[in-house]
Every structure is written in structure tokens, then in C-alpha cells.
Design brief:
85 residues; alpha+beta; Ubiquitin-like (UB roll); five-stranded mixed β-sheet; 2 helices; 38% strand; globular
């Protein structure tokens, strides 16, 4: 099932995107693909997800459905471990 995902890089204005992702897709792949478009030099980020139940850090191997099984939209904030920009 397709899910609405809002994703952005915490340290960069204008990096937000709203997309549809398959519920079985790993969050890490979604994050990597987004980083390739907004900050390809970054490869070490923490993945913070915001769900109706609150905020939590996600393992990159978790799928969209693992994180929020209810079908509600997810917000993903990518927090750089180090950003040299």
C-alpha cells in the first residue's frame, strides 16, 4: 500500500519533499534517495520519525509500515551526524 511520507533534512531549508512510498520499503532507502537529491555529500544521518504517537529514532532497516502501521502519514527528519556545509 502506498503511504504519504514527508521528509526533510534538519539543517537545510528548502530540503522538504512530500512523496508516496510503498509501506514495505525500508526507511533507510527512502532517506538515502532523498539525501542524493538534497545533500549527496552526507552519508551519516540519524532518522527521526514523527508519528501520531510521538517522535522516535528509526533503524534504517525498518519499513514504513513497521514504524506506523495505522496508515497515517509519516514525517521523517534526517539529522546529520556531521554537516560540513
Amino acid at each position: 500500500m502506498k503511504r504519504v511520507v514527508e521528509i526533510r533534512l534538519a539543517s537545510r531549508a528548502g530540503s522538504a519533499a512530500r512523496l508516496e512510498a510503498d509501506g514495505g520499503r525500508p526507511i533507510g532507502i527512502i532517506a538515502y534517495e532523498h539525501l542524493q537529491t538534497v545533500a549527496p555529500h552526507l552519508d551519516d544521518v540519524l532518522i527521526l520519525v514523527i508519528t501520531p504517537q510521538g517522535e522516535k529514532y528509526a533503524d534504517p532497516r525498518m519499513t514504513v509500515d513497521d514504524i506506523e502501521p495505522s496508515g497515517e502519514p509519516l514525517q521523517i527528519i534526517l539529522v546529520p551526524m556531521w554537516d560540513g556545509t
